[in-house]
Amino acid sequence: MKYLGIVRKENNILFMPEGFKEKDKTYEALEIEGVIILIPSPIDKERLSHIEKLIDVSINEHRKSLEDLAK
Questions:
Q1: 3-state secondary structure of 58
Q2: Looking at the DSSP assignment, which residues form a beta bridge with residue 27?
Q3: How confident is the model at residue 3 (pLDDT cuts 50, 70, 90)?
Q4: Quick one: how far is CA 27 from the chain centroid?
Q5: What average pLDDT does the segment 64-68 reach?
Q6: Strand pairing category for 35-40 and 13-15
Q7: What pLDDT digit, counting tens, does each position of 6-62 carry?
Q8: Res 11: pLDDT
Q9: Is the preceding omega at residue 17 within 30 degrees of 0, hence cis?
Q10: Are 46 and 31 in contact (CB under 8 A)?
Q11: Is residue 42 exposed (0-12), middle (13-18) or buried (19+ Cβ within 10 Å)?
């Protein structure tokens, strides 16, 4: 994973950070457990399902590690 920076939204337009190098591409926006993910278009249902599973596992593992650290 690579942190790209903060996305700013003004008047329903997303302004991508400088770290985001892609130009003139479209993306699918997903929200999984309150986390918004942008994935290059087009995305078929099989790929979407696989991505959702991987992201869900990653988020849950991260939450568990944070909970363990808090103990």
A1: helix
A2: 40
A3: confident
A4: 11
A5: 90
A6: unpaired
A7: 888 899 888 888 878 777 788 888 887 777 888 888 888 898 889 888 888 888 888
A8: 93
A9: no
A10: no
A11: exposed
Amino acid occupying residue 3: Y
Neighbours of 19 (CB within 10 A): 10
27-34 long-range contacts, CB within 8 A, separation 24+ = 30/55, 32/56, 32/59, 33/59
Task: Report residue 65 as tokens.
Answer: 């590690």
Structure tokens at 14: 């997303």
Please report, as a single letter, which amino acid is at residue 48: L
**Amino acid identity, residue 8?**
R
Query: Tokens standing for 51?
Result: 């991505």
Mean pLDDT score, 62-68 = 89
User: Would you list the DSSP string of 3-54?
Assistant: -----EEETTEEE--TT----S--EEEEEETTEEEEEESP--HHHHHHHHHH
